[in-house]
Fold these 4 entries.
Entry 1:
Amino acid sequence: MTASHEIGLIDRLIAGLPRSPAQLNRVHESDAELLRMQDGSVLAVTTDGVVEEIAAGLYADPFLAGWMSVAVNASDLAAVGAAPLGIVVCETLPHGADEALLAAVQRGIGESAAAHSLPVLGGDTNIGTELQLVGTALGLLPQGTPLTRLGCRPGERLYATGPLGLGSAFAFARLQQTGREPPFRPQARLAAGQALRGVASACMDTSDGAIATLDELGRLNGVGFRLTTAVEAMLHPAALALAAQAMLPPWLLLAGPHGEFELLFTVPADRGEALERAAAAGGFTPLPLGEVRPESGIELDDLRGSRVLDGGRIRNLFEDSRGDVGRYVGALLAMDTP
Amino acid sequence: MTASHEIGLIDRLIAGLPRSPAQLNRVHESDAELLRMQDGSVLAVTTDGVVEEIAAGLYADPFLAGWMSVAVNASDLAAVGAAPLGIVVCETLPHGADEALLAAVQRGIGESAAAHSLPVLGGDTNIGTELQLVGTALGLLPQGTPLTRLGCRPGERLYATGPLGLGSAFAFARLQQTGREPPFRPQARLAAGQALRGVASACMDTSDGAIATLDELGRLNGVGFRLTTAVEAMLHPAALALAAQAMLPPWLLLAGPHGEFELLFTVPADRGEALERAAAAGGFTPLPLGEVRPESGIELDDLRGSRVLDGGRIRNLFEDSRGDVGRYVGALLAMDTP
């Protein structure tokens, strides 16, 4: 689950579980769990299973499944500004899986771990009905304050670490079998996240799609967003091309629940120079999206006009459509009223 | 998988994966992964999925499934002598799971987390075909050397933290549907593990059964074991009762691949007093089992005589029997030649 239905479930599931006095964040407040250590450093830990994406056929390529089991967790570390320490992976392998499948999964895990500087510390293997990969990544914040989802205020600027919509474009092409899947092998923004500590006021990755990310940031901080950059200028070229081919309004590529693992972050207006330094250190080009506004909702413009999106409703549409991509896109199109 | 077939698979899976220079253990050498931190402390991390046990019907009780997802990971922390920091749990919930099932799973996780002083730091939820729970636990060794599986020498004494065989007795009764399942809610030996640091020369938990544990310790250290205590005196009363009822040789209750989460550990002969202090501090009564011998194999006595067991063969029997408990017990009985 990737939408706000999941949030309600999580809230129910965690009620009554024992919590740690050393934990800095409450549930939902950051992409990774943050634990104050005795020496003052902060340990970041996050667990994320690649389960539904495999079952839905999105990661039918076992290399990609392995790659993503590391990348999704690395992205959570990136969003809190942690330096990567390592990862453990619990693999459930299907009965009678052939050597080629196992080798491709491991190659995906290995190449992703190397690309994210996340050594594989260990793991567990089980035999089950279908392939499932659960990664748990550890990171460290040697000193100072972690990035969290909390802290943005009206008037601040909103940025992304890179163009958006590639995750949705890949998922649409893959699940609709258009035969034109854009290459998809996302690399989490670990260097960017570390460089943004002390610069960004709030940060979250787009693993659930850009609109879900903005909706969550808005709810947690009691604000909304006005996207002043035209949607067409935010989109990854492959996402824009898919929108044109499939004749979809471009903003739909921000709405899908499968993201691209960029970071969305807010910066106070007087930190422009600090942002430039962070961008140089973190190896990214900040993509200005708009600004934080006091009113809730996500206001955006595209070439056809302006609209305010109900992020909460959009986040639940995919699950409400029971995974039927055609029905889901139809429901999104019905919301396309500038 | 719980047997030495799994070890071969793991060796193949990890080949080529990037490793961390800060990791103190190599694969198989300890129950949890050990990472040296900058301040000199050691972070212990372990991931273990409760997948096959649920699929096999062993943990049909969702409370027990939740309990075990914490306990199995706590036990790995115990075996390295770590103090518990916290746990994350990635849950795959079956489509259309009812509220009662979810509540029972969460109650199991929560009560086990409280019993093991392992706060739940966070988690992830997915919807899938069947219930699967993957826990990842973190522990800390503030200073000194962790316990590992390496370090025992011929002539040293072998102990358990408590009676053995309850895990096998539970599994046999449950899977053979004898209707006489012994109560099974194991609590990992966290206090014992911490107290045994600096006292035990090697340590491993019995999560895969006592004979598998001894076989692994023997292989890693190039030794074997002579069990001088009669098997009947090692067994948990419920295991001994089940052996009598089912007319099984008692040592079979040490052979099953479902363990009881005690620790097996070795102690040099001159550390008797240190062991007494550790037992008092760790709240356990050391159960003497026998001694480390230079020759490989596990030699044991029961009321019917003495025999040397081939631990490696026993460890693969369950998988070789394809999970058929009747066939498995038959294959074990065929090895019962004093």
Entry 2:
Amino acid sequence: MKSTKELIAFLQEAVNHLEFKSQPAGLYEPLAYTMSLGGKRVRPLLCLMAYNLYKEDVETALNPALGIELFHNFTLLHDDVMDRSFMRRGKACVHVKWDENTAILSGDALQVVAYQYVAQAPAAVLPACLELFSRTALEVCEGQSYDMLFETKKDVGEEEYLEMIRLKTAVLLACSLKMGAILAGASEEDAQHLYDFGIHIGVAFQIKDDLLDVWGDPAIFGKAIGGDIMCNKKTFLLIHALKNADDKQRESLLHYITSDDIDRAEKVQAVTALYEAVGVKEECEAKMLYHQQLAMDALDALSVSEEKTVHLRELAESMMKRQM
Amino acid sequence: MKSTKELIAFLQEAVNHLEFKSQPAGLYEPLAYTMSLGGKRVRPLLCLMAYNLYKEDVETALNPALGIELFHNFTLLHDDVMDRSFMRRGKACVHVKWDENTAILSGDALQVVAYQYVAQAPAAVLPACLELFSRTALEVCEGQSYDMLFETKKDVGEEEYLEMIRLKTAVLLACSLKMGAILAGASEEDAQHLYDFGIHIGVAFQIKDDLLDVWGDPAIFGKAIGGDIMCNKKTFLLIHALKNADDKQRESLLHYITSDDIDRAEKVQAVTALYEAVGVKEECEAKMLYHQQLAMDALDALSVSEEKTVHLRELAESMMKRQM
């Protein structure tokens, strides 16, 4: 069984050697650019780790794993157009560096390339891999659709929010793990447990993201604290704060999240203080730990020996303890 | 063997019964809307006709054929965003009826749905079908990329133009036919001949399109004559006209195609007169007939009896004789 470090190195090498056609440059250069921006490659890593629970020849799972990473980058490319973002991982987004049409069309091509890689799964499991991948791809679109809808929706409930992040973030992590299991010929039960593990770490990961945006260490976080607060984003924290607040606190919170002309420092400080006053930090941390526990329970249910699951447990823990 | 009419009815029924998920409505309603706009469904028809040269159970080829039609409609949806078009088949484009983000995201989902249908090819031929489909999908993106590039490129040569329409239009027709052949278990040679047939009818079809835009019968054509002239589009006609023209004619032509403030009737009349003076109508008609002949030669080379190819020949002829 390979160490996480070995798998990351193996993956990084493969990502660095991804090759795209060269012409027309206006179509393919943005693909190479997008894939060169980096990222933790956590999705293909999860795919290889799941595969490696059952089989040693991880190279069999490499291309489908890369397909998922390519797909993930395609979604970022198009999301950045839809969200009017300017920067991605410290560099200009494709629609900024080139233009919007280039971003749309290159994204379309990147989705096709993602399918080309997934389609290199061995023929015996190809239909199952494709079925999982396409279903997940649609769910990711659904998540983005709900996310955009929630921007203008006044009352987003906790359940709706959780369903949105399940679709937008968690299902692709879950798909990565399940595809590793399918490629390795694992039982349907194990494949489902790994899928569930992915869902729960995905949800916990997103709650952690919301927490870091408010209480992260600015020196480590890598971007300005309070970004979600400044753009009035409906995060898990805000939804809980609005629920927990008394009338006066709610009025104050609504004042801040519907005003765009308040000084950044003042707004971030005031909303953070309100969050702390109504106890959402503790509540959200508890919710995160709850999903982390469910993730560990899913690993406990696997048919493989517990020691084999150590790497996945460590990865899940590092994702929750991260400061950036 | 089924008649073309029977196959069209079979396909239309299937397209009418396509079902999409219902939620989120903002994601899936545009898909149903797009597929309800109509169209001649010529790509899935070609797929079924090719299949039917070898086998009778055309329902086996239905889902992959629908996948190609879904993909074609996805490209129209995103092309309309990129080209800033307002109308498609007499109705508002998705990005007009909804908004641009909806069009981008629904298009992404439609491409996934297209793959879901193609992936229903029998397991034995699934890798070959996917390989063909993905390669073609990338080529279609390449065609759109060149088409956008040519809008601002000053000197587009005939070869470049032909390569662009091969990619943008012809390869998907060719893919439809070849996929029918692969699904039916035809020989590689036959599959390639059918592919070539598709390429040549595609190129001829596009030249016909350019001709109709200038010399079509306004009462039949369905849209205003001279649309390409008004938006200074680099068509096969314009490329040939610039090549054939003497200095004075070229100067006049360049004057018209670089001016946006000339009265429509005057501009269309003047450019049409220049086209006629330099003989491009005859030249382009000859080029169209040349590709039509190559298409027929490809059918001649098939291993099936000539009488079986009658439907394909008739379809190709009707595509060239069409007035709209």
Entry 3:
Amino acid sequence: MVKIEEVVKGVLAGDKRSVARAITMVENSPEEAQSLIAAVYPNTGKAHILGLTGPGGSGKSTLIEKMIREYRRRGKTVGIIAVDPTSPFTGGAFLGDRIRMQELTTDDGVFIRSMATRNNPGGIAKATKDAVKILDASGKDVIIVETVGAGQSEVEIIKVAQTIIVIHAPGLGDEIQAIKAGIMEIADIFVINKADRENADKAVMDIQAMLQLDNKEKAWTPPIIKTVALTGEGVPQLIEKIEEHWRFLQKGLLHKRSLEKAEAELVEAIKDKVTSSIIKKLKREKRFEEILRRIVDREIDPVSAAEKLLDQILE
Amino acid sequence: MVKIEEVVKGVLAGDKRSVARAITMVENSPEEAQSLIAAVYPNTGKAHILGLTGPGGSGKSTLIEKMIREYRRRGKTVGIIAVDPTSPFTGGAFLGDRIRMQELTTDDGVFIRSMATRNNPGGIAKATKDAVKILDASGKDVIIVETVGAGQSEVEIIKVAQTIIVIHAPGLGDEIQAIKAGIMEIADIFVINKADRENADKAVMDIQAMLQLDNKEKAWTPPIIKTVALTGEGVPQLIEKIEEHWRFLQKGLLHKRSLEKAEAELVEAIKDKVTSSIIKKLKREKRFEEILRRIVDREIDPVSAAEKLLDQILE
């Protein structure tokens, strides 16, 4: 058994193996996760957290690979957390181009980790938030969270980021676009990758059209950057825009967002604590069984039943 | 203002307009939803609830249309709830073939409703459950809940069903299959639609291969039905299989599942009640602001902060 204190020490020293162990801990054990996060938390808050999302076929992984190389050229250290949908039948995440990215892991300034959604799709958002904190505490300058951007749980995950980048490519199906709708709204930067393909300008115009529909007054207008990840074209411009957004956030919005994020995390933690202790207590009582039977027999509906059970606990 | 009692009366009488109003109420107002559901709840528990899910391009809507016609031929009334991902930019769900289904709505034995996920993706599972209860209380024999089956929230929604039907079609991309992994595990019946296309047999074999990987002993082995929704081929056989599954459930599993469902709904309701009342209370206190500031300043992590706040409330 590795002691948590040792792992924490390693994380704070930026030791790669300790970071890997720490992330495994937060994935597997909620109790260890909490001791660990509580210990590293004072050392967090320094990294710039990017969320990168886009459908399969948009060239996301290749783009991230090139972004890492550009950041390294600029002397910055980078952590990457890839969150992927996973088949419970095959038991593993799609690797694909990610293998090429693994080459980068011989570089001590880069840490790459794939988080499988496996049998715990609810816990993945929490585990990702914890993994970001670990990488932050380990001293990484930039942390990239990668998702495929399908569905609501993905939107939850990406919200850990301070700068959200949505990647498109010409010629991807309409359905994929629709699924990503919730994410488009919270994007800070758009990227049209594979910009050497025909229809790239049409893809840019589609996004512009969508942005114009959203006529809220905004202090930051999401720019649209064209890249060709395979050749690296446009990647330095993308990094420039990301840095620009970071400076923009630091001018004021960052503190407001930190407060909001702190409140959301606090409320979430309160919910977890309260419900687990109260439900554990209620389940031990005989009237819990009794009221379940009444729900099944259609004598009372679940919400009224909950009110009844709680009447005695809450004033 | 329509009185809730009037709407309830209309729902129980099977009045179409009242059912529509009731569903709008549960979509828009949690308070009205609760009074309404509590009132209709004793009249629920009679319908057979089907969950139908499959990616865009699988011909889901056309298949549902043909299923409705077959059920009507057999003298059964049908309610349909279509849950779709919705763009907050366009503000509306994709209609597509659904328009053709609207023709069916002149039939008093059919009720079709589209639920938009709009700005409340978390609430959609709850609203769908409530809508199912309303249709059930209104006397529909069969209720079909349709989703596109992408992501975890969709899996949540489809779990309202007693019989879960997963639709595939030959030649759909790999990515879509992966996203649906969580749903494949809980499927009771598989449908290969567009079975007149080449590769239909390959699609059947792919599912068979996946089912064999799952070597748990099961009382019900999910059958794979081939259909051609456009011509209606295979639809009577599908309905037969659905009825067979219904009889299978009634032999014993149905009661067990009803108990599980009741417990899940009760626990959910308890969580809602507890957290909303406790968080409301905490937010009024001065130390809530104070502890938020300490989280932002990295003096304490959110979970430890939650423990601190709750120490006084919970024993």
Entry 4:
Amino acid sequence: MNQDTDFLRQAIALAYANAERGGRPFGAVIVKDGKLIAQAVNEIVGTKDPTAHAELLAIRAASRYLDSASLEGCSVFASGHPCPMCMGAMRMAGIEAVTYAYSNEDADPFGLSTAEAYADLAKPFEEQSMRIRHLPVRLEGEPDLYARWQQRR
Amino acid sequence: MNQDTDFLRQAIALAYANAERGGRPFGAVIVKDGKLIAQAVNEIVGTKDPTAHAELLAIRAASRYLDSASLEGCSVFASGHPCPMCMGAMRMAGIEAVTYAYSNEDADPFGLSTAEAYADLAKPFEEQSMRIRHLPVRLEGEPDLYARWQQRR
């Protein structure tokens, strides 16, 4: 637990340092077998890449370090409550655990909460603010896309 | 609607081409004001980056094209049902609409469905397969992280 608190402090220190440089106040580290293997800060301001959240960049760095798309056995320590994109990314990459320090309630007065996005994405597709449509278009004369992929693997 | 079908066909054609090259069978294009501004395929196999989904890479390409982290007014056309990470990324980037052709039901027999991840992420944090913890750690002697960020902006 003390070690977990230390990793969380490192993520928070990254967030402070990023804010001092004019970036958004978010940092994250990834740990495997008790060892820090990746760290990142939010880089949206510098890159204008809307996906450049600390957690997502840390996942990418950890996959490079491990030379694997699977982050099984890895834990994420994030300064703030991860957004839906990052939570999905961690879940899909096989992250075992995520710990965060600042909550969405802490973030709300500063316009940094993702609670609204969470609530929106939890609604049925037809009720969300982003319009989501399923059009079962197919390319004529082609075998099924996924069956074709399975054949080629 | 016909133009929408054409954009969806382009996304599907990208998915077929990626499968032929040994990649995963997913493609996506992004459209603004009726014009295709970005396209991408799933690059996980080649890069071992677990975030290299077609939609996420298309978002990154569109933000570079527009030189903006906001993709307001943009629509995504994806060959397959977007995963939770990509759905979150699109929602957070301000994407207006997303249209997909192959459903999770189509994908399920091939192990490509994200329905299980959706169901897991929809549960309360304490019931999800990934362990999610909130530890309200703070750095001693520092002002509040988010208040400090607001002062520095």
